[in-house]
Amino acid sequence: MAETREAPSSPLHVVVFPWLAFGHIIPYLELSEQLAKRGHAVTFVSAPRNITRLRPIPENLSSRIRLVPLTLPRVEGLPDGAESTADVPPEKVELLKVAFDGLAVPFASFLAEACTGEKGVRGFGKKPDWVLVDFAHYWLPPIAEQHKVPCAFFSIFPAAFIAFAGPKTENDAAPRTTPEDLTAQPRWIPFPTPIAHRLHEAKGIIQAFRPNASGPSDIYRFWQTEQRCPLIILRSCREVEGLLCPLLADLFGKPVTPSGLLSPFDAALAAADRVVEGDKESASLMHWLNEQPARSVIYVALGSEAPLSPDDVRELALGLELAGVRFLWALRERSAALLPDGFEERVAGRGVVRVGWVPQVRVLAHGAVGAFLTHAGWSSLMESFLFGHPLVMLPLFADQNLTARAMADRAVGLEVPRDEEDGSFNRDDLATTVRRVMAVDDEGKAFARNAKELQEILWDRTKQEKYLDELVKHLLRVR
Ligand SMILES: *C1O[C@H](CO)[C@@H](O)[C@H](O)[C@H]1NC(C)=O
Ligand SMILES: *[C@@H]1O[C@H](CO)[C@@H](O)[C@H](O)[C@H]1NC(C)=O
Ligand SMILES: *[C@@H]1O[C@H](CO)[C@@H](O)[C@H](O)[C@H]1NC(C)=O
Ligand SMILES: *[C@@H]1O[C@H](CO)[C@@H](O)[C@H](O)[C@H]1NC(C)=O
Questions:
Q1: N or C: at which end does the chain have fewer Cβ atoms within 10 angstroms?
Q2: Spacing, Cα 263 to ligand 2 middle (Å)
Q3: What is the whole-number distance in angstroms between the Cα of residue 51 and the centre of ligand 1?
């Protein structure tokens, strides 16, 4: 099989182990493929069902990527067979973390076995050089240390999110204990930044800053993990996040090496060439898009994880109706049942609601799409900017709120206004926001222009490849 890159004389063996969520597993796999492309061996660890459902690994890389399933222990209250956040309602994610923590023992056995590898052996027979860990793995670095294998924290979140969390030392020096503390710019960011929470968000997440009955809080997990990792790998780049990237290295007192944005170039190129064969359902969507005028449709997709409340679904639907624009809305089954009576009939012809899976990259690539109504998750944005779409942002959880602030500051779109106290949004504000982003007036044109600027950055593949090359150099040097 053709090999585009020479294997280095002493290839690495890297173990990668994402948190049990789709949004983490995919970028970890993307990074794994980039390492494999450069001649290194990757052992990818996850739970068995997640592994069997991974997208296929390109044939010419599959010999360098080994998939290792570790079986989760049973946990009282966790649905049978639940292995990822997609399999459980949000209130059970804490139980998934309990099960995940139960992987410490099987992981220790796996690593002990892997470390019996002899010197001079290549590939998976070689003792691992690195373990790439996620925010939740606070128990893993001590295990790796027993075998003298260094860990690197691979952040799938942008610098904005990590900078807002800040290192433990800074937080201990001036603890943020009230919601109001989280609505201000962190004092360790020495330049003006829009990165801060709204009051209604802060009230919810102040929890994450306190340990609780269900075990260590997310922020504790992150700090425990990060403190024992000599390297942070960041899915970002300076061109997009600017000074925040170098700031992180100062703040955390260790090298912070960007992996670049890991955008799905190949899927994007395939979608643009229209060579992707689809199922019947996708074909009918594409057919509908083919009939719509250029850049007239807003694609609406708020992900499969964060639940939309009945009020959210109703206001979103009525807001799209009021906005009077063409739209394609990818909606989960659970939410579809909540659509207002008669909604689909009233918008028939200009609005399509598709329940279930939608080929997102192909839709974003379609010339009829002109804007994206998104939760502003980093992976979705990395897909969207490949096609230069301006954004209507309705962030829901995790990094999305702070990412939305950063993107609004960059004027690539607007956030849907929410009530400061209770976080609700209404149909009128939603409609106005959609219209402003899609308008062809000065403001709308500026959003489109700024989004195009990001598109150019993303398509600078030479630069993006260089980030990965630099990362590999670092991994080779420091191991
Ligand atoms: C992991 O497995 C579950 C089912 O067990 C599935 O819902 C989820 O999509 C899988 N994740 C990935 C990334 O394939
Ligand atoms: C693997 O094959 C793809 C085409 O299927 C090609 O574009 C790529 O360069 C190949 N990569 C390597 C490392 O051989
Ligand atoms: C425990 O902390 C997690 C975040 O780390 C949070 O999602 C959860 O709501 C908290 N539970 C309680 C009972 O406070
Ligand atoms: C983000 O914002 C949403 C919607 O306002 C809120 O429900 C959620 O708690 C916030 N989460 C985080 C982590 O900021």
A1: N
A2: 17
A3: 8
Residues 345-369, buried b or exposed e (16+ Cβ, 10 A)?
eebeeebbbbbeebbbbbbbbbebb
Residue minimizing CA distance to atom 11 of ligand 1:
50
Q: Whole-prediction pTM value?
A: 0.92
Six-digit token string for 385: 């900017």
Residue 217 DSSP code: -
Superfamily of domain 265-458, CATH level 4: Glycogen Phosphorylase B; (3.40.50.2000)
Check if 246 has its Cβ closer than 6 Å to any atom of ligand 2.
no
Task: Read off the tokens for 6.
Answer: 């020479």
User: Distance of alpha carbon 134 from its chain centroid, rounded?
Assistant: 12
Nearest to 258 by CA among 457, 117, 48, 442: 457
Question: How much distance in Å is there from the Cα of 51 to the middle of ligand 2?
Answer: 22
The CA distance from 363 to 355, in Å, is: 15
Say how many Å lie between the CA of residue 425 and the centre of ligand 3: 24
Ligand lying closest to the C-alpha of residue 85: 1
Do 13-262+460-478 and 265-458 have matching folds?
A: yes
The CB density around residue 5, as the number of other CB atoms within 10 Å, is 10
Residue with tokens 């220790």: 108
Q: Report the alpha-carbon distance of residue 126 to residue 387 in Å, rounded.
A: 41
pLDDT digits (tens, 9 = 90+) for 143-183: 999 999 999 999 999 999 999 999 999 999 988 989 999 99
Q: Is the CB of 83 under 6 A from ligand 1?
A: yes
Tell me if 238 CB under 6 Å of ligand 2: no
Nearest ligand for residue 20 CA: 1
328's enclosing H/E stretch is strand 326-331
Q: Where are the domains of the chain?
A: 13-262+460-478, 265-458
84-114, pLDDT tens digit by residue? 998 998 889 989 999 999 999 999 999 999 9
* CATH code for the part of the protein at 13-262+460-478: 3.40.50.2000
